[in-house]
Amino acid sequence: MKLKEEISKRKTFAIISHPDAGKTTLTEKFLLFGGAIQTAGAVKNNKIKKSATSDFMEIEKQRGISVATSVMGFKYKDKLINLLDTPGHRDFAEDTYRTLTAVDSVILVIDCVKGVEAQTERLMEVCRMRDTPVIVFINKMDLEGRDAFELLDELEEKLSIKVRPMTWPIGIGAKFKGVYNLGDSSLNLFESSKTKIAKDVTKIKSLQDAKLDEIIGSKQGDQLREDVELIEGVYEELDETAYLNGEIAPVFFGSAVNNFGIQEMLDQFVEIAPTPRARETNEGEIKPDKEKFSGFVFKIHANLDPKHRDRIAFLRVCSGKFERNKFFHHVRLDKNLRFSNPTSFMAKDKSVIDDAYPGDVIGLYDTGNFKIGDTLTEGEKYTFKGIPSFSPEIFKEVINNDPMKSKQLEKGIHQLTEEGVAQLFTARMGNKKYIGTVGELQFEVIQYRLQHEYGASCTFSPMNFYKACWFTSKNKEQLEEFIRLKSNYIVNDKDQNLVFLAQTSGILHITKQNYPDVEFHFTSEFKSQNALR
Ligand code: G4P
After folding, report:
1. Which of 46, 264, 294, 483 has a C-alpha 20 to 30 A away from that of 254?
2. 278, 385 in Cβ contact below 8 A?
3. pTM for this structure?
4. 279-377 against 394-530: fold identical
5. For the domain 279-377, what is the CATH superfamily, name and number?
6. Domain boundaries in the chain?
7. Burial code of 418-427, b = ≥16 C-beta within 10 A, e = fewer?
8. Domain spanning 394-530, CATH class
9. pLDDT reported for residue 200
């Protein structure tokens, strides 16, 4: 009973956005509403600044600091909310994708001037892989942005999801006055405040209320009435099941920095966002209310101090109850482990916890037992699915500068790639190793860390690969022929899966034509069943 009660209180989510759309600002406002911080600025300090791209150590340092805010727990109404932070820097996109496997829903922030941007589309693709429920927040309505209806069309078109506005902006840019709540036909006009949560100053009960025209003027009043009529005619009511299935996204408008439209969204979020959901394993679904504990590691953070090579593994609790000092089973290593100081995170504070429930994320101190995707159970042998690797965009071969230190290099490369800093591909013949990343920054990080933490020195030689493709086929003969004839371009990933490194999109296209029965995938996890790989 207690377990079910704990589960029903929890909501675990992430805020995602293209850099600069307002993710950090919105996070801060949520923490203010939740009473977890008192003034704005607390989160901002931990942000990885986009301008610092050349100064990677600074970024690593900031990444280190951001451990404290990797998970921000706060209470709102009677709910316990776990907000998982995702790095804003594009080069750490893989980190973000993995974090998305540990949440039950997301809030997507869109800049109203820029609309749907490249990173927004990619993040949504990842959400769709798991049918993650999405709420959209269209931010910066105080700027001269695009027309609200046009933005909704763009969302539907580019993100392939139906939308339903829940609030509506009154004016835009200099004329932006606030948002009308379509759900309860009310209007809260807030005083804008950059640092604290202002009390609502005016509450209006209906669109017909004469006070409305008094406050926003009859021109904007008429426009609002007209817009609302159009919305009710064009958009269907929000179907909560469709939202939970990831088919329709409720949309809110506002200005994070001015604190407009946030409370409307947060109120709706606690109402409709899913409580911890069931997760897929290789032996079927595990429901959160299963009595026996289970969880998986989705992120590993290295200690920056080279004298302490310990790391923090972030574990999402999926079922049952996690307890401090109790032995749990590490499925991959077939080994029992216990944790004497597991930590939870409340806004900026870390504290040791005695227990944790489904939906919670805890930090486990690790001396090298964990790699991303590892499952912990109460003795059962299943493993969680759903931590895919995505095709990197930049590939380089590792060149060892110091043959005397080959062992250190090998060990360092393995540990760093297990942390998820980059992906490692190994040639099946010979000893060539390729590193694949989303951004250039990781190469600098790897080189620096190999030198300082492992005493190994290497350089990278660029490789002209376009994509890493995991592949499957039901046609054994064709699969074997493909592997034989393309052997120079077929490597192993970290889990010994075969991966085809296509040099160009043209080559991939021709390969697909030549081997019609071989299926190519840009992520390591795909829905193809009963296929050989
Ligand atoms: P991110 O985490 O998604 O990268 O975005 P962040 O919240 O840092 O916001 C990016 C910039 O947009 C910040 O300005 C922030 O103040 C601004 N911003 C956020 N919400 C709004 C809004 O509703 N309206 C307007 N006009 N601006 C908004 P900055 O100049 O980069 O930082 P700062 O010096 O203001 O802190």
Report:
1. 46
2. no
3. 0.85
4. no
5. P-loop containing nucleotide triphosphate hydrolases (3.40.50.300)
6. 2-272, 279-377, 394-530
7. bbbbbbbbbb
8. alpha beta
9. 56
Residue-level pLDDT at 498:
93
- Which one of 16, 25, 49, 193 would you pick to mutate in the ligand 1 pocket, going by the greatest count of ligand atoms within 8 A of its CB? 25
Give the pLDDT confidence score for residue 529 in this predicted structure: 43
For the chain (length 533 residues), average pLDDT per consecutive 10?
92 92 89 73 48 46 52 89 80 80 96 92 87 97 94 95 94 87 78 58 76 86 93 93 96 91 93 96 95 94 64 93 97 95 69 92 89 94 85 93 91 86 89 88 85 90 94 94 94 91 94 95 64 59
Homologous superfamily assigned to 2-272: P-loop containing nucleotide triphosphate hydrolases (3.40.50.300)
Q: Quote the pLDDT of residue 210.
A: 83
* Ligand 1 atom at minimum distance from 17 CA: 3
Among the listed residues 312, 361, 189, 161, the one whose alpha carbon sits nearest the alpha carbon of residue 250:
161
DSSP secondary-structure letter at 192?
P
* Residue 400, SS3 per DSSP: strand
What DSSP state is assigned to residue 378?
A: S
DSSP string, 44-66: GGG---GGGGG-HHHHHHHHHHT
CA of 148 to the centre of ligand 1 (A): 20
Task: Decide: 258 and 192 in contact? Cβ < 8 Å.
Answer: yes
**Both structure tokens of 519:** 């299926």
Distance between CA atoms of residues 521 and 207, nearest Å: 51
Which residue reads 């916890």 in tokens? 353
Residues at CB less than 6 angstroms from ligand 1: 17, 19-25, 88, 139-140, 142-143, 255-258
Q: What is the pLDDT of residue 199?
A: 59
Separation of alpha carbons 193 and 209, rounded Å: 26
Identify the three-state secondary structure at position 219. Answer: helix
Span between the terminal Cα atoms of the chain, in Å: 44
Contacts of 148 (CB under 8 A, 6+ apart): 112, 138, 165, 168, 169, 172, 227, 253
**pLDDT computed for residue 309 by the predictor:** 65
Per-residue tokens: 74: 């706060």
Ligand 1 pocket test: which of 16, 107, 257, 265 has the largest number of ligand atoms within 8 Å of its C-beta?
Answer: 257
